[in-house]
Task: inverse folding
């Protein structure tokens, strides 16, 4: 246990039941938990309920936090486990069986001219991309969200999910490749 | 080339995949820093568009007062939990204590006549030197008990 751990002050305040401390902790990490859970389970009502379960569990188990990882990873891990259990309960696979055979073709495809700003203004393209993201398996959706929206580095994602860093890198790589191919299909570039 | 987010992550075995990964990473970083896309090739610009879309928050969100709701919820819940748990533990301790006392009384009634005289004989045979050692042992036990008590008092328990 480290005395100078950056999360110590907040954890000690919550454990001592200081006024406003738990609300501060929830405020700090509710975004992370929401992103993990919402991207995995998708249904907003279920996601809200699971977020509540997550913070109730955090409150019950905070005395077991040993400062071996950042508080963010510890709380993220609880959210991940709760979302995972929900998916298992609903028999939703975390990762659909995918065919990686055409990854090489996608990598080799250089693509044609592309105007980023014009593409951003293209509402139909944005719709296509969002639909493609929703079609990704829950695991890849959650990993992309953690990596892009929360700017969580791969080693920390590994702590949250319990998945090896190399496997996370591979999922991120393939998910981005798939989404790029959706973009190219929309803009008329043959793979 | 070292990219942020790559720390401790091994490169792909396939060099073409690793090159593509680095393009993806560089595009993500350039988009994060909002650098001018004019110099980026088509592939990078597509990855930058992905980064832009992936960084958009979801249309659904938690209620604005979610943290306050959670704080209010746990403010009542643990008290009830602790009280119930404590009264259960207290009841269990009393029950075990009573059981132990009854068991000790029964054992004393059945076997007491055999070993009580031996204890009395040992007590009679204690000379002055043995008594000093026993007093020293009792002193040590008392001192460590007092030390433990003062430690608990300082830590607020």
Result:
């Amino acid at each position: 246990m480290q005395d100078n751990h950056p999360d110590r002050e907040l954890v000690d305040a919550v454990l001592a039941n200081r006024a406003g401390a738990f609300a501060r902790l929830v405020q700090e990490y509710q975004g992370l938990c929401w992103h993990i859970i919402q991207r995995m389970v998708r249904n907003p009502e279920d996601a809200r309920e699971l977020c509540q379960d997550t913070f109730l569990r955090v409150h019950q188990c905070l005395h077991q936090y040993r400062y071996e990882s950042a508080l963010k990873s510890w709380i993220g891990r609880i959210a991940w486990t709760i979302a995972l259990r929900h998916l298992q309960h609903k028999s939703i696979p975390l990762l659909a069986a995918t065919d990686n055979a055409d990854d090489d073709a996608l990598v080799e495809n250089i693509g044609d001219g592309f105007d980023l700003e014009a593409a951003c203004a293209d509402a139909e393209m944005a719709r296509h991309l969002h639909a493609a993201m929703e079609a990704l398996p829950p695991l890849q959706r959650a990993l992309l969200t953690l990596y892009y929206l929360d700017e969580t580095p791969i080693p920390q994602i590994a702590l949250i999910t319990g998945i090896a860093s190399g496997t996370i890198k591979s999922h991120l790589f393939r998910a981005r490749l798939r989404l790029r191919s959706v973009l190219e299909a929309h803009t008329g570039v043959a793979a | 080339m070292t990219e942020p987010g790559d720390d401790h992550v091994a490169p792909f075995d396939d060099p073409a995949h690793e090159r593509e990964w680095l393009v993806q990473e560089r595009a993500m970083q350039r988009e994060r820093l909002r650098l001018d896309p004019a110099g980026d090739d088509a592939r990078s610009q597509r990855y930058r568009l992905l980064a832009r879309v992936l960084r958009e928050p979801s249309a659904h969100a938690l209620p604005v007062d979610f943290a306050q709701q959670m704080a209010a919820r746990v403010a009542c819940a643990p008290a009830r939990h602790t009280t119930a748990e404590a009264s259960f533990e207290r009841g269990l301790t009393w029950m075990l204590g009573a059981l132990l006392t009854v068991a000790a009384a029964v054992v004393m009634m059945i076997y007491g006549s055999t070993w009580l005289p031996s204890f009395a004989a040992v007590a009679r045979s204690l000379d002055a030197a043995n008594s000093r050692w026993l007093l020293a042992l009792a002193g040590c036990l008392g001192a460590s008990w007092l030390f433990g008590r003062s430690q608990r008092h300082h830590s607020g328990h």
Q: What stands out?
A: The radius of gyration of chain A is 19 Å. The first helix of chain A runs from residue 8 to 15.
